[in-house]
Design a protein that fits this description.
It is a single chain. Helix content is 52%, strand content 12%. The longest helix has 21 residues. Helix 3 crosses helix 4 and helix 10 crosses helix 11. The strands form 2 sheets. Strands 1-8-5-4-2-3 form a 6-stranded parallel beta sheet, sandwiched between helices. The radius of gyration is 20 Å and the shape is globular. Bound molecules: zinc ion.
Length: 352
């Protein structure tokens, strides 16, 4: 940022993390003066887990609540939910789900220019707090600009019921911060891209705290959920301070997005990013072994086999990753040679 340049940071206003905080939903709506007719966007499974609870609490408190079940985060779903929001003159939207419902609600709320609340039922990626939404359109998933949630209500009791695999993936998304910040520093030095010391420091500290407590992140432990949720919120704040996803998304994310396009079947976003972090840390000349070790302790995949993706797609993704977001300078530069791609994947034992 240049001196004298304006900066607008958008942060969530209320963040609730803890056991049973979903029951505070009406207090949050009152606190934020959000109007009386919300539209809840939820998935078919997550509706039973949390969507119905939110609906009933708000209904009992006199809100005129409508619910729309959304199955995927696609442009056609966005249009369908938008039509519902217009029809019911919804004064705000609530996304209740593991990610897709939150992305759809977030994007529709932005388009309708109304507030949005995020109620995650899993902690698998930082989209639960961020100002970006992943929307699929014409078979391709793109990350679109949206408003950050006005409030995040992360009920650790609800989230602890989600499969542990999702929580481990969330850890991979946080560990990504290590290489994301390294890429950002590199871009700052090589291309004079603006850099925020505060955002970078917060992002790194978040990843470090998580790595330091890796051995206490275990299945069926609400305290683990709490730790990961707080780290995701903290990563989200770092992105808000930066005004971009730079502090939490670099070459490791480009690798994951590349994998989404080249592999016939992909794994969870955070799982792919975790493996991307191991390899990109090797390219940066950093301590990739401790990244790998940490993911192993948490129980997140560290190899192509554990991801359920064939070696050849890992190599293909490494070769095209730099084209995913060419304006974002990273350690991948203008791309790896096939020999270099094979070397990084083999040395880090991602492929065998
Ligand atoms: Zn991510």
């Amino acid at each position: 940022m240049q001196d004298g340049m304006k900066k607008w940071m958008q942060l969530p206003r209320d963040v609730l993390v803890g056991h049973g905080v979903i029951n505070d939903i009406s207090d949050v709506c009152k606190d934020l003066k959000l109007g009386t007719n919300p539209l809840i966007v939820t998935g078919t499974t997550t509706k039973k887990i949390a969507g119905d609870v939110v609906h009933d609490i708000l209904g009992d408190c006199g809100y005129d609540v409508h619910v729309v079940a959304s199955t995927d985060a696609s442009m056609s779903e966005v249009d369908r939910v938008k039509t519902e929001a217009i029809e019911h003159k919804s004064s705000f939207l609530i996304g209740v789900g593991s990610g897709k419902s939150i992305d759809v609600a977030k994007y529709v709320a932005t388009q309708r220019d109304v507030p949005f609340l995020s109620i995650p039922t899993a902690a698998s990626h930082d989209g639960i707090v961020s100002s970006r939404a992943s929307i699929r359109s014409e078979g391709k998933t793109t990350s679109v600009e949206a408003n950050a949630p006005m409030a995040v209500i992360a009920d650790t009791e609800v989230i602890s019921k989600a499969p542990y695999r999702l929580l481990a993936a969330g850890c991979g998304d946080i560990i990504s911060n290590y290489t994301a910040v390294k890429d950002w520093e590199l871009a700052h030095r090589l291309t004079n891209e603006s850099f925020s010391e505060y955002a970078a420091a917060l992002s790194l500290m978040t990843a470090r705290i998580l790595i330091d407590s890796a051995d206490s992140i275990k299945p069926d432990l609400e305290s683990s959920v709490r730790m990961v949720v707080k780290a995701l919120v903290s990563s989200g704040v770092a992105m808000s301070i930066a005004g971009s996803s730079r502090p939490a998304s670099g070459s490791e994310h480009m690798f994951s997005h590349a994998l989404d396009t080249v592999a016939p079947k992909h794994a969870l976003h955070g799982e792919q990013c975790g493996i991307g972090t191991i390899m990109m840390m090797y390219l940066h000349g950093g301590d990739w072994c401790s990244i790998k070790e940490c993911l192993e302790i948490i129980g997140a995949p560290t190899t192509a086999e554990e991801l359920g993706i064939e070696d050849k797609y890992i190599l293909e993704a490494l070769l095209v990753a730099h084209t995913i977001r060419p304006e974002r300078y990273t350690i991948l530069g203008t791309g790896l040679t096939p020999a270099a791609a094979e070397k990084v994947a083999r040395i880090t034992k991602v492929i065998s």
